[in-house]
């Protein structure tokens, strides 16, 4: 009987530790499953705090609309790959539209929790846009 109690205590401690130390999911992605957008890759990174876009064709623009029909983001991407930090998006449903002329690729990001600003490796959208501009200007020089 002592062994059963010890095993039960260890099992319960293990379950509580797993819940305490598990990583919080910040977002969930509903992908576009249209076969016409076969070359367009959109996914979240491992920590689910960054949206990763890749394509075999150039992505011109990216914008999102939140549940109150306000445009959250309106970005000129003009590249084949793009990483968008999700820390500026509020909790709730955000409909994203990636524009590849003439296609409009629609997908949804559900923000389950707001991402804390002070978390590691989270870069603001403005910081990322500035780095992209610096890269573009260095290529032209």
Query: What is the average of the pLDDT values?
Result: 78
The geometry reads as: elongated
CATH architecture: Sandwich
Helicity level, as a percent range? 25-40%
Number of strands: 6
Any idea what the radius of gyration is? 20 Å
> Treating each run of at least 4 consecutive H or I residues as one helix, how many helices?
2
Strand and helix order: HEEEEEEH
CATH fold field value: Immunoglobulin-like
CATH class call: Mainly Beta
Keywords: Signal
What's the structural blueprint in terms of helices and strands?
Blueprint: H1 2-21, E1 27-30, E2 40-44, E3 50-66, E4 71-85, E5 92-100, E6 103-111, H2 125-140
Antiparallel strand pairs: 1-6, 2-3, 3-4, 3-5, 5-6
Give a structural overview.
With 141 residues, the protein is of the alpha+beta class. It has one domain (24-140): Immunoglobulin-like, CATH 2.60.40.3080. The chain is built from 2 helices and 6 strands. Strands 1, 2, 3, 4, 5 and 6 form a 6-stranded antiparallel beta sheet that branches. The model has no long low-confidence stretch (mean pLDDT 78). Keywords: Signal. Residues 1-22 form the signal peptide.
């Amino acid at each position: 009987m002592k062994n059963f109690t010890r095993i039960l205590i260890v099992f319960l401690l293990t379950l509580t530790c797993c819940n305490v130390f598990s990583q919080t999911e910040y977002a969930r992605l509903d992908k576009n499953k249209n076969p016409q957008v076969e070359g367009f890759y959109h996914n979240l990174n491992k920590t689910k705090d960054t949206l990763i876009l890749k394509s075999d064709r150039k992505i011109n623009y990216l914008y999102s609309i939140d549940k109150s029909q306000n445009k959250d983001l309106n970005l000129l991407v003009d590249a084949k790959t793009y990483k968008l930090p999700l820390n500026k998006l509020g909790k709730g449903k955000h409909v994203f539209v990636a524009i590849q002329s003439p296609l409009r690729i629609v997908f949804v990001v559900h923000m389950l929790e707001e991402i804390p600003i002070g978390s590691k490796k989270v870069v603001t959208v403005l910081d990322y846009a500035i780095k992209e501009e610096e890269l573009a200007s260095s290529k032209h020089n």
